[in-house]
Write a structure and sequence with these properties.
By secondary structure, this protein is of the alpha/beta class. It has helices spanning about 5-10, 25-35, 50-55, 60-70, 70-85, 100-105, 135-150, 165-175, 210-225, 240-250, 265-270, 285-290; strands at about 90, 110-115, 125-130, 155-160, 180-185, 195-200, 230, 255-260, 275. The protein has a nine-stranded mixed sheet, sandwiched between helices. It is elongated, with a radius of gyration of 20 Å.
């Protein structure tokens, strides 16, 4: 791990301590931009308080930044525990960080993705699947077919590892010999490694589940897929609705909703989603090519 990656983790991670207060994403972005703008002006040495003052930071923030950067021992211990659990950090300054997240989420892309599994899966062409935890049978069949067709047509499936639509699609994809990226909202280090399955989590590998983490990771699920398939959604509430509406608002990726006759899917179509039937999944390439919003 190079010094820039280590600095990114020191400044932006809890390092396994809920009481540790890292820089907020906006603060980290401002610091990164300002330091990058001064590269080459200083000799190769550690930042000092006067350097940060020259970059426009007040004294309190300068000292906080230097305090975070000084905790090398804590970082070493955190990385050692991560290695023992098979967890690897991919920071926004790491080679191999998904370009598609940078392109689609911009400054809102995660500072660090922690990975458990085969990292070669991370930058493969993918589609995503979202949906409710409590599924009607016809919607369950649609979710499973999305996973199966992803495998059969050489696309990785991105989903969120929740019960219901997520796991239905993931298991169908793996059973058909496909590859899966599963973005979890609970402790990454507790996941069981499996062939062709890459687990990801944002910011830390040992953070427990929270509703906020579950909602936050939705943007990554939507942004990593060339197209997002919604198997089922509640109307006006829930993680599937929230993430899909935000996707349609910000244009992260095209959205295809299962034509199940529900008011929720009709409303999402009014916002710009496509309505598709299970039979449309036999040619995912045609669906992707029909989307004018693909880059």
């Amino acid at each position: 791990m190079n010094p820039r990656e280590r600095g990114f983790l020191l400044l932006g991670s809890h390092l396994g301590d809920a009481e540790r207060v890292p820089l907020s994403p906006p603060q980290l972005r401002v610091l990164s931009r300002r330091v990058r703008g001064r590269e080459g002006e200083k000799e190769d040495r550690e930042l000092r308080e006067e350097d940060l003052t020259e970059l426009g930071f007040d004294r309190e923030l300068c000292r906080r930044i230097l305090s975070l950067l000084s905790q090398e021992g804590r970082l070493n211990d955190y990385l050692r525990r991560a290695e023992e659990r098979g967890c690897v950090p991919v920071t926004r300054v790491t080679e191999g960080y998904p370009l598609i997240l940078r392109q689609r989420l911009g400054l809102d892309s995660p500072g660090t993705l922690w990975a458990l599994g085969d990292l070669t899966i991370l930058n493969t062409p993918a589609i995503a699947l979202v949906g409710s935890r409590e599924l009607r049978e016809v919607n369950r069949a649609f979710a499973a077919e999305v996973g199966r067709q992803a495998a059969c047509q050489g696309l990785t499936l991105v989903s969120g590892n929740a019960r219901g639509a997520d796991r239905t699609a993931q298991e169908a994809c793996l059973a058909a010999g496909g590859k899966v990226i599963s973005i979890v909202a609970d402790e990454l280090c507790r996941q069981t490694p499996r062939e062709n399955l890459l687990y990801l989590s944002e910011e830390d590998y040992d953070q427990p589940f929270s509703a906020q983490r579950a909602l936050s990771r939705n943007r990554c699920i939507h942004a990593l897929g060339r197209m997002v398939f919604a198997a089922q959604s509640d109307l006006g509430h829930g993680g599937t609705w929230d993430g899909t509406v935000k996707n349609l608002r910000f244009g992260w990726s095209p959205v295809a909703c299962f034509r199940d006759g529900s008011e929720a899917m009709a409303r999402l179509a009014d916002m710009g989603a496509y309505l598709v039937d299970q039979g449309d999944l036999t040619d995912l390439g045609a669906l992707l090519e029909s989307s004018p919003r693909l880059f």
